[in-house]
Amino acid sequence: MPLNMRRALFPGSFDPLTNGHLDIIRRSLPLFDEIVIAVLNNADKKPMFTVEERCEMIREMIPTLDGNGCTLLVDSFSG
């Protein structure tokens, strides 16, 4: 990774992914070289969709966004 790489972390439950989430991602694309969309896996809550389903929904939306050279990654986390 280059020293001057601009990376952002966008954590959230994304249950489900909303137009508001997509708006934040779209506005962030020109500002960063890479955005990691981190999907929360919270065992204490009863989500509408599994963490795997939420990650897949986001991955399906990525090609519809004009990345402007920004790489979008999707991962999950707990805690």
What's the short version?
It is built from 2 helices and 3 strands. It has helices at 19-28, 51-61; strands at residues 7-12, 34-40, 71-77.
Structure description:
This protein is α/β, with parallel strands linked by helices and 79 residues long. It is 27% helix and 25% strand. It contains two helices and three strands. It has a three-stranded parallel β-sheet. Strand 2 (34-40), helix 2 (51-61) and strand 3 form a beta-alpha-beta unit.
Which features would summarize this protein structure in a list?
79 residues, alpha/beta, three-stranded parallel beta sheet, 2 helices, 25% strand, globular
Quick one: how many beta strands? Answer: 3
Strand order of the largest sheet: 1-2-3
Q: How much strand content do the residues show?
A: 25-35%
Taking the alpha carbons of the first and last residues, their distance comes to 26 Å
Q: Which regions contain 5 or more consecutive residues with pLDDT less than 50?
A: none
Q: Can you tell me the overall shape?
A: globular
Mean pLDDT: 93
Derived structural class = alpha/beta
Number of helices: 2
What's the order of the H and E elements?
EHEHE
Report the helical percentage. Answer: 25-40%
Rg, nearest Å: 13 Å
Major beta sheet, specifics?
3 strands, parallel
